[in-house]
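R.M. (postdoc): so does anyone remember the format we settled on? I'll just put the structure tokens first.
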């Protein structure tokens, strides 16, 4: 079995590769972005199976299906919870929630092998085309669910509660993740932006780039920037780093409206 890993978090990709090697799965390449993946598929035979992260650093991996007719079977890897993924559970080979569990990975590989024995080459990405459209809709217009209303942070020997309405943005810096409040205070939290993004309401919060997840109510100004990007001025956070990545500008404008 020839397998490809498409995952933008390099440590996670290496860990997945090591786990697959233990299962005697041949990993032929590890890719980290949509653009790298497009180039790879144009120059290489398609593998039997792809472990595909949904959200890569330069966009959603679904963009691959818009330009390339991928012939491989797909196992999705994602930080999005099970509730949001019900739409394609029965249509894709499988999906694995991060951090990936070794036992669940083994089950997914066995499931692929079983289906491969039963259906042969009919197991391909063509079987999940309809579900991919469903997933994209869910990511833009998520199903009704309960999102976090507050976070706890440690201040010295005390635990402080911070409501999401008090949060201007979440941001990452020096390998840490912080809450910036509307009062101009910042607090270190034990999480990552990748983990936080599906936990907060997509109506109120938007991931403008790899570093910032901002609250719509904290936007003070939006300025046209180079390379078709947008620069965001927040009410209290004084930085020039809040720039909407070019591949997220369209979704950002839809989010604003």
């Amino acid at each position: 079995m020839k397998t490809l890993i498409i995952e933008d978090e390099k440590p996670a990709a290496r860990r997945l590769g090591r786990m697959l090697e233990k299962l005697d799965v041949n990993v032929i390449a590890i890719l980290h972005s949509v653009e790298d993946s497009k180039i790879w598929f144009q120059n290489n035979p398609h593998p039997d199976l792809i472990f595909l992260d949904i959200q890569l650093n330069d966009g959603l991996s679904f963009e691959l299906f818009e330009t390339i007719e991928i012939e491989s079977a797909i196992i999705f890897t994602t930080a999005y919870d099970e509730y949001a993924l019900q739409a394609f559970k029965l249509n894709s080979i499988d999906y694995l929630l991060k951090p990936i569990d070794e036992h669940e990975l083994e089950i997914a590989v066995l499931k692929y092998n079983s289906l491969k024995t039963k259906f042969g080459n009919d197991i391909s990405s063509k079987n999940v085309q309809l579900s991919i459209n469903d997933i994209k809709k869910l990511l833009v217009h998520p199903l009704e669910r309960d999102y976090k209303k507050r976070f706890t942070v440690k201040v010295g020997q005390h635990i402080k509660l911070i409501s999401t309405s008090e949060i201007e943005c979440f941001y990452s810096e020096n390998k840490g993740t912080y809450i910036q409040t509307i009062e101009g205070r910042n607090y270190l939290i034990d999480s990552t932006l990748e983990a936080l993004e599906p936990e907060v309401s997509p109506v109120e919060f938007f991931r403008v780039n790899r570093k910032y997840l901002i609250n719509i109510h904290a936007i003070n100004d939006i300025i046209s920037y180079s390379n078709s990007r947008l620069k965001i001025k927040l009410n209290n956070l004084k930085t020039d780093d809040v720039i909407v990545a070019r591949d997220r500008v369209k979704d950002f404008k839809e989010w604003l409206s």
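R.M.: ...and that's the designed sequence above, right after the tokens. Also worth knowing: Residues 125-130 have pLDDT under 50 and may be disordered. Helices lie at 10-22, 34-43, 63-67, 102-119, 129-140, 193-196, 249-256.
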